[in-house]
Amino acid sequence: MAVINLRVNGKAHRVDVEPSTPLLYVLRNDLDLSGPRFGCGLGQCGACTVLIKGEAVRSCIRPVSQVQNVEITTLEGLAQDGKLHPIQQAWIEEQVPACGFCQNGQILSAKALLDKTPNPTDAQIRDGMKGALCRCMTYYRINAAVKRAASTMKSPPTPGARDFSPAAIDGERS
Amino acid sequence: MSTRREFLKTSGMLVVGIAASDPIAAFVGPPFTGGQNATGPYPDPDFRQLDSWIVIRADNSATFFVGKTDLGQGTGTAFRQIMSDELDIAFENTSCVMGRTDVTVDQGGSGGSDALQTDGYPMRRVAAEARRVLLEMASEHFGVPPTALAVSDGVVSTKTGDTADRSITYGELIGGRKFNVTLTGKNTDTTTGTAPLKSVQRMKNVGKSPQRYDIPPKVDGSLKWAVDMKAPGMVHARNVRPPFAGATLVSIDESSAKSIPGFIKVVSKGNYVAVVCEREENAIRAARQLKVQWRKPATAPFPASEDLFKYMRSATPSSTGKPVITGNPDAAFSSATTVIEAEYDVPFQGHTSIGPAHAMADPSNDQLTIYSNDMKSYGMRNSVAQFLEMPRDRVRVIWMEGPQAYGRTAADDAGFEAAYIAKEIGRPVRVQWTRQEETVWDTKGPAYAVKMRGGLDAQGNLVALHYDACAADHNHLGYNEHDTVLISQLMGTRRAKVSPGRASLPSDMYAIPNRLQTTRVVPLPMPFETPLRTGNLRDPDGPQVTFASESFIDELAAAAKTDPLEFRLKLIQAGTQDDSGFKRARSIACLKAAAEKFGWDPRPSPNPKRSTGDILTGRGVGYAYRSQTVVAQICEVEVNRKTGHIWVKRIVIAHDCGLVINPETLTRVLENGTLHSLSRALYEQVKFDTEKVTSVDWVSSPTMTMADVPAQIDVILVNGDPNPNRADLPHYGAGETVCKPILAAVANAVYDATGTRLRGIPLGKLV
To answer: How many CB atoms lie within 10 A of CB B322?
Structure first.
């Protein structure tokens, strides 16, 4: 066992676990963050996705000791001040989820994609989202929601609005 | 005494009553406030009491209690729509509690696409009855006859037209009190009061598309699912499965896992083995590290997957269906001008849910509470009680949202395992299957080998058809039974008798003068303790059967040099029989609607203008019904001649399920269901050698990804009823029909594109 320091959704946490423990179990069982889900434990399906430095990371295979003192964002951390992220809003507008179990990975993969590629082509959406599996096959609406979110996010930001991208938050902290 | 009574007493101050130690209250919220009932026992809610179905609060909001589960197809929202319409209360002021065996009546949970078709009616009737009773109360209150009252959005008004008109809300009339109205009916399906149902024309919410209430908490991460349930003192268990089908446990070296921090114990009986640890990651480690010796069975449990169809075609049937004969098929085949034959293969396919099986069981207070995503929570509750030899009223199953598994949770295993371990160790236990365990050991859709033979006359008319199906569906599971769930098989408490399974017939309205339909079920050598156990996979055998029947109709159309869509329409139009649901007229309407939307250009297949480039394009059609719901699908494909990759570029879905409750949600269900079957058509197959299943994860068991999403899907909601505006237009089921025809539609489109007929699933090639 070892003391591990984590920063998740802007809050600092200290946990005492085996350093090799995958981040997923610490998030779910110790920090009560149930957005990231166990789907395969093999890094194949994307249900466990979290954002670290803007990258979509598979928390089920990432040892917790390797993600100390970096900002980790989970699905719960996307909304700010009670306002949903435009991607989440697009997911509601398009009524994307069926069972919804994989949608954590879909939404955070879309966030990572749109942060890098704000105006993706169909091919870029296919490529950027193909690692997040959905057995309800909501892909058609995911595609539409990514486009809707891209269009919403392109509109100029509200004056004074804070940039909640992990990069900007990291910038604020440094 | 009951939760409901407790709730009614505390109505209006609900949040205050939440016991911090009651995890249900925290997750599910009011009205489950952890009253006396939280500690049990849990008698069945009485379906003959109106109070079991509807509670109205002082604030003029209503909660509907329904014994169904919503597997992500929006049925909860639809129930609120139909019930708020019958009750005459604002949709926004309603909520819905589903599938909790202690507080919702037993409507069987979900399955068979019957949520609206069957169970929607008692829901409507009890809501109409509540409205009638409330109007009577208002009548007494105002001293005017009920006919002198109007009601809208839960507000009852006198309607004399005077300025002195008075009004009162439902909440003021009954909030915080019980109806105390007894209903009639033999079971939940027939439950009724005396109030009549509304006509379709008087329904305000039906036909509109309020957004699903479960989506925002799924999108912001706030929803608590069955996988998220925790309880004080809860521990984590992982199963250790036999590495081979039919393996016998020889020995367990418990010392091999004892050094793991927080190790509690190995729980084992017969061939069932699980490890229990304080923390989840340590349970995972312990399951990997535990040294267990197994002995292989003396004979192979099944043939290897590459030999499956050869095996099936020559195996002795375990049962043979009674032949269905129309006309004189033998004579018709003898006199036919052209006779063609073809064989179609559909392999075992897994449910392979995105989330492996899981459950949490809490044995506190000498009762047992199981938190589960079991679609048939009532079946699990009854069978766990039998399995553990506990009185039924000491067991309850709390249904919570979970990963959709399209039938797999009708034979849920994890709930039984969690219950067993919890009782063994006396602590709340969470059981979580691994990906490999789920992919290997979940129930499988049965494999089908179908032989088709058809005869055309000189004019190209179909005069004789023989459908001959062989299904590897021996020992079909599919329901929570205490003596067939995996743990009972492994423990040696299973039943001796093998369930017969079935081989099904196609569903079409083709009028074929001479028709023979024969079916048989063949067994694999090992019926129990095998990962090739069959269960209900979304329209349990419709996709398999329809792949064969709708592919072959296309082959016949090609042999007759006729347009495949016109060939079908002609066969349906030749019919004279119809049923109360007008399936024939509605089949024609769906095929025509799909053709019109697609811009279908009548011509025989294959496409005469075949490209000489790498990409070949083609179009294909498929059609089927299930119960009274009809669907036609047309797709356009691109086949890459170099790589073999098939991309389904466009799909048109024309669907008629009678009265549509929520068009937007239905559209999503149809899009997703079509793509689920498209994934099955292109990529899905369970592979195995002669000892074990070798499809173990998403690499060895591929599923469709975003890379293959069609560019366009058009959904047309058809109302092909001869009297489309009838006041009692029925609401038929919509979950599964759409899964049937797309496999054949794709194969037909590939033939149109390439001139090559693919007769084995999976059709596609991952590139």
So the answer is: 8
